Amino acid sequence: MKFSQMLTKRFKDTPADCQIASHIFMIRGGYMKNVGNGIYSLFPITKRITSKIEAIMREEMNRIDGQEVLFPVAMPANIWKESGRFDAIGSELVRFKDRGGNDMVLGMTHEEAAVQLARETADSYTQFPFMIYQIQTKFRDEPRARGGLIRVREFTMKDAYSFHTSKEDLEQYYQKCHKAYERIFARCGVPEVISVKSDSGMMGGKVAHEFMLCTPVGEDSLVVCSDCDFRANMETADCIYDETAKGAAEELTKVLTPGMKTIEDVCSFLGKDKSDSIKAVVYRLETDDSVCVVFIRGDIEVNETKLRNFLKSEVYPGEELDKEGIVAGFIGPKGLPEKVRTVYDISLKTRQSYVCGANEENYHYTGLNIERDLGEVQFVDVGKATEGGICPVCGSKTLKLTRGIEVGNIFQLGDRYTSSMGMKYLDKDGSLKTPIMGCYGIGVGRLAASICEARHDDYGPIWPITIAPWQVQICALRSDDEQVKAFADKLYEELQDAGIEVLYDDRQVSAGFMFSDADLTGIPVRIVVSPKGLKAGTVEVSKRDKSYLEKFEPDKVKQNVIELVRTMVAELNNI
Amino acid sequence: MKFSQMLTKRFKDTPADCQIASHIFMIRGGYMKNVGNGIYSLFPITKRITSKIEAIMREEMNRIDGQEVLFPVAMPANIWKESGRFDAIGSELVRFKDRGGNDMVLGMTHEEAAVQLARETADSYTQFPFMIYQIQTKFRDEPRARGGLIRVREFTMKDAYSFHTSKEDLEQYYQKCHKAYERIFARCGVPEVISVKSDSGMMGGKVAHEFMLCTPVGEDSLVVCSDCDFRANMETADCIYDETAKGAAEELTKVLTPGMKTIEDVCSFLGKDKSDSIKAVVYRLETDDSVCVVFIRGDIEVNETKLRNFLKSEVYPGEELDKEGIVAGFIGPKGLPEKVRTVYDISLKTRQSYVCGANEENYHYTGLNIERDLGEVQFVDVGKATEGGICPVCGSKTLKLTRGIEVGNIFQLGDRYTSSMGMKYLDKDGSLKTPIMGCYGIGVGRLAASICEARHDDYGPIWPITIAPWQVQICALRSDDEQVKAFADKLYEELQDAGIEVLYDDRQVSAGFMFSDADLTGIPVRIVVSPKGLKAGTVEVSKRDKSYLEKFEPDKVKQNVIELVRTMVAELNNI
To answer: Is the C-alpha dihedral spanning A478, A482, A484, A489 positive or negative?
Structure first.
């Protein structure tokens, strides 16, 4: 492709609404154009990147016996009603009526479509296991689209669905797919992507992993052990607390704490550490509108995902507590109205004696001993992991909190969809059984943007060669110089004939202008042809990441560039 | 791929709702599954076919300097409001509100998106011409989805948009794209596709062609000259009438024709030919609800597309005519209330004397002479071409009517979208100008089904090798036979190593069962490995279309099949 013919436009200034590097460079470099909130058209340069990512995904999915299919974007709602998700999912699921007045949805994921396709087709145990996948457009009406292609409403996704007759078989395939994902990310140039245990959310099922590219701009909080392999999403990370320093039991005493409604105020007034207090956090359950008070150690935060999973309900901050007989600011486990549901976090197993609210305006207790004063209590893990906390795997106090962008996820769905949608197969023994499923997703555009986030300098993206829009860029400085033009034209043709993808900047612009455009284009290998160089008998070849710069005699350029490209491609592909 | 592992299911019986061959075979052969009205999921076998068609399209679009982009499926309505189509298009355009209450549409075509992407990017004459294309999902809420993949509501389409600074440049590129389309259809194995002049309908613009695969099950009526190159869609075919036998003028006479309300009744009663009568057809205009009477020769039908274009309004059959002072069944040009709008078809220029209604219950005129009795009349071409009619190009009476499936279309849009959406570029002379556009579409699934329609026998599809799901099918009869299995396994590996795509039927099923499945799979080259054959020292190689059957010694099979496949592929690609 000649640069002069490419439909694109670059901008010198950073647009006002762009905060993260990938968004800035992909707007400044003319990679995409905003069509609406969280909706983009992709310019040719980006389509080339996403097509390459898709090709790598396809190869890796085929390698683990995946069969490519195509599900509809717009689906009749009936299959979503079968699975129960038509009613369960909120307004991120787009619903509309077709001309006949029928309920329709836009696919934001395709478990229902996968079961609908497979259920009358795979009806004998001999047909299992199998995996089907598609690369297709999805729409999710995100309330907070942001960060360019990182969080959009419409996106292209590779989604795969595997079907199995046993848990062991699913587990085995799940591991296989986990490895395929590692290969995909490594081949796309980001081998540092880690997988973390995650919450399966609206997908159903129990075991799930997210693949995370660690970066400070990531939306997800991760918990990683710096001593062992443990890594998890904050949402699901198990908490362990040191129970070896419980302290001594004290006498239960009611103390006047006038107007002190926060843990900080009370602890500082009483000269106690926050970890010696019980914090009360009030929620209201979506399912029955009832109130629930979570008691947790004063220095620990409530992990609402864990709480939600434990209560099996969406939760909202509790309000209008007077009606329930709750004294806001002075809530404690002793003396709380009995009808109020309570949850005790396991962090409360670590002390013999606590400061806590006395359920009376302006009063707290000191010396509360849970066993002595409250009797038997069920402890549940609903707390957030903390920096320096105990690793649930190796036991060291080595937990680190970090942030990451989720670039893929895999779920063991079990029979969540096959059972609700009535999929059955005839087993060896003649009985009808329900198969179980796994599902596996990667967003194409988000992966492209995340790679840009992880691979850029101050001037633009540094695309890994396997997904770069072109492998080589020829910058012809002074293309009006006859010798430069003749050499660059010939090199362009010869490299292309050798199967190398070349972007040829043939424009008559200044060197500075051309180089800054080349930085924004981010092509990994650059050839600079200039009148000065040719006069000196050299052509410059460099890598975009600045790790390589060589000058070759003009007739040695072609072969050296071909070898350089092949080595770079092989490095990423031969993992 | 091993047949035993493929997700698919075949059916012996023809489903009740399938009428045409492609629909029957693609359901019976497990190619797709209905998800809802006009919405299908594609099984792996079909995805392989459509991916190959897409690859051919991509190559041919790139060959004419197309740049692949990606537009959104779901778009904010504002760009459709800019072009005016948000209000102009009926319920086939899906509209919905997003969570923020904003109007959204599902793309059924992407002119608006193309202009939105290009308009601030290509702002100088130096950037023209260019063509961008995508291969993407579209949704059109068809009132009458039918025929499997022939007419669906959701479909994958290759749509291309070219931008130009002059009419000559557009015309030139249009021809180039016309040629690219011919190459696409030829490479997909249907070189017999013809292009016909067509109506541009809701797309705007004037010059348009449809690419038609002629088949009796086609939805479109075509007019084709058997003597010259003329071919057109019935909707736009110009009509020419013989004006050399006008007959003699007669006296205008009112005659009693009791209860005779049809042309047939009146002409037979008066002993006249239908071509000597004037038929009146009444319409109501959508724009202002007014009535319009079309007068046309008794033997010619009204072409409503032409009428619509002339009146610049949608038209519906006229009803409740009494109110307008119209006497249904006896309508004629003389004595009709003056306020009623009339249209005279050019077929009425062919006689001196006509039978026609007298606008009075039970009366007709004979001997009506238009010039003498009505004065000057504007004649318009709103008639349908007829079998044996006069060719507007060569003038012979050689028109034939036939039917075709529209498999592609190209339009010269002019400034229909660039002008309404305010796209401008800076011309050489420093002035701002509006570029003009062409657009070019092919539906992928419809093309696949159309090819099946054109290439099948009584037992299933005969896929052209360039788009076949696999190139070669190995049928291992008695795969439990050690020798058969060993030979077939080895051949399967060796052919794949040579880059041949092989479907290997390794199932232990009867020969009849296996062959009938192979017929439904439609793979162009078949290798039959049987115990009997191997004993006799032969392996059978045949073509699905029955034009070729050879027996080879086992160790000669591989090389012969490789050559056969290469020759077949080259035949279609080297056009």
So the answer is: positive
Is 90 exceeded by the pLDDT of residue B153?
A: yes
The predicted pLDDT at position A201 comes to: 58
Contacts of B79 in chain A (CB under 8 A): 35
Whether B429 contacts B222, CB under 8 Å: no
**DSSP 3-state of B47:** helix
User: CA of A341 to nearest chain B CA: how many angstroms apart?
Assistant: 34
**pTM value > 0.90:** no
Cα–Cα distance for residue pair B314/B312, rounded to 1 Å: 7
Q: To which H or E segment does residue A295 belong?
A: strand A291-297
Distance in Å, alpha carbon of A317 to nearest chain B alpha carbon: 23
**DSSP assignment of B492-560, as one string?**
HHHHHHTT--EEEE-----HHHHHHHHHHHT-SEEEEE-HHHHHTT-EEEEETTSS-EEEE-HHHHHHH
- What is the reported pLDDT for B218? 86
Cβ–Cβ gap B7/A42 under 8 Å: no
pLDDT class of A199 with cuts at 50, 70, 90: low
Rounded distance between C-alpha atoms, residue A395 and residue A52, angstroms: 42
- Listing DSSP states for B53-82 in one string gives HHHHHHHHHHHTTEEE-B--SEEETHHHHH
Q: List, in sequence order, every beta strand (DSSP E) within A167-288.
A: 194-197, 208-214, 220-225, 231-233, 253-256, 278-285
Quickly count: other Cβ atoms within 10 Å of residue A400's Cβ: 16
Whether the predicted pLDDT of B196 surpasses 80: yes
Question: Is A41–B4 a contact, with Cβ atoms under 8 angstroms apart?
Answer: no
- pLDDT at residue number A245: 85
Residue A482 φ/ψ region, left for φ over 0, alpha for ψ in the -120 to 50 degree band, beta for the rest: alpha
Residues B504 and B475 sit within 8 Å (Cβ to Cβ): no
Neighbours of B40 (CB within 10 A): 26
Token pair listed for B217: 């099950």
Sign of CA dihedral B38, B44, B49, B55: positive
Cα A251–A252–A253 angle (5° rounding)? 105
pLDDT at A74: 98
pLDDT value of position B201: 57
Domains and CATH numbers, chain A: 19-67+114-231+401-453 (3.30.930.10), 253-380 (3.90.960.10), 470-573 (3.40.50.800)
Mean pLDDT along residues A516-526: 97
The Cα of A182 is separated from the nearest Cα of chain B by a number of Å equal to 25
Asked if the Cβ–Cβ distance from B65 to A5 is below 8 Å, we say yes
Residue B324: its pLDDT value, please? 83
Q: In what order do the strands lie in the sheet with B278-285?
A: B315-317, B278-285, B291-297, B341-345, B379-380
Question: Are the Cβ atoms of A69 and B120 closer than 8 angstroms?
Answer: no
Residues B213-266 have pLDDT tens digits of 998 888 888 999 989 988 888 888 899 999 988 899 999 999 999 989 899 999
